[in-house]
Amino acid sequence: MRPYELIKAKRDGKKLAPEDxxxxxxxxxxxxxxxxxxxxxxxxxxxxGLDAVELGAWARAMLESGEVVDLSDTPGVKVDKHSTxxxxxxxxxxxxxxxxxxxxPVPMISGRGLGHTGGTVDKLESIPGFRMDVPVSxxxxxxxxxxxxxxxxxASIAPADKKLYALRDVTxxxxxxxxxxxxxxxxxxxxxxxxxxLDVKVGSGAFMKKVEDARTLARTMIxxxxxxxxxxxxxxxxxxxxxxxxxxxxxxxxxAVEMLRGRAPEDYxxxxxxxxxxxxxxxxxxxxxxxxxxxxARAIQDGSAVRKFKEIVQAQGGxxxxxxxxxxxxxxxxxxxxxxxxxxxxxxxDTEAVGMAAVVLGAGRQRVDSIIDPAVGFTLLxxxxxxxxxxxxxxxxxxSEEGPVKEVKERLLAAYHFGPQAPASRPxxxxxxx
Length: 434
Prior knowledge:
Elements: H1 3-11, H2 18-30, H3 35-48, H4 52-63, E1 79-83, H5 91-101, E2 106-110, H6 120-124, H7 136-145, E3 148-152, H8 159-169, H9 177-190, E4 195-202, H10 211-227, E5 231-238, E6 246-247, H11 249-260, H12 266-282, H13 289-301, H14 304-315, E7 334-339, E8 344-349, H15 351-361, E9 377-380, E10 387-388, E11 393-399, H16 405-415, E12 416-419, E13 429-433
């Protein structure tokens, strides 16, 4: 089929032949199919979906659009983790060094912020000198010698996804299960892993607002992994409020380091430990989740987790002193507090609204070519279930430019809901799938 015919067929609900999908994605990667036609096909997929055969063909075409890294010279079971995205989700920053400190090789290819969610690349690049654009040869060496390497997508790894990732962000086709699943799995399977842990977020700050949708996405990715011969475990985790208290790139780096020192907020710590424990089990460094949790606790207590993070930072060109001296990280010019409109308890936080407020402030991207400010963001002074008095600070805004502050304050205040009673607590890990 010609591109026009393929778009029309999917728009009308017809099934696409695997060879046509492959040809379309190959043509898009080479530039023969323009962005506007891929945008049209993505929107058709958003409304019409892909069946199992179409999805398998789509994911494989994305994977095989570039290089598939061979890490066979690195001993051990190579395990990565991927999050479907949330607000305040800095888990990868602490999970990767924590797993590596326990002996699991962690090859991790990460993305930039997408929609209202933050990106691991943006967070790590707020560390002075830290390089995410490591060539594949260096990536392979660092995984083998350091036990971990965190990089952004290279031009050679899943280039179809790299182009499509940015396009989806600005065409309202991010929250589409087939496109999310194929994007994640094409990158992850290309990086040389043997096993994968998925953190599928669910709630107001996630792309999947409902548990059943998150479960469908998890099972879809587990299925793709099985087809490709990879073991995949998924945890559905709560994103009905931001994770931890920091939102914003450099602010989240600080909270991640604090987690490795055993001093981070309880919710962020628990989600990180739950996911990292699954990595240790898949990586055959622990026979059970309980044993894995004990090893993780020791790595935090004896300082090996923080030392591993410093080693990773130094190996990738960053300044390891910033892990001890937070003053070396980007800092916003000023702060201002958002005050509670009424007293009682925080009953809910519209987490997507918080994420969009961060984008407006400059911590995320409104366009593909937007330049982010790594210093800006929020500190959440009150979270769901916590008491608050009228006029008391609930969020601290860290800003560099005055321009967006008024709008950001209004967005944050609108995102907070108050009531006379604290709501029932929600489980942080909603479900486990494998």
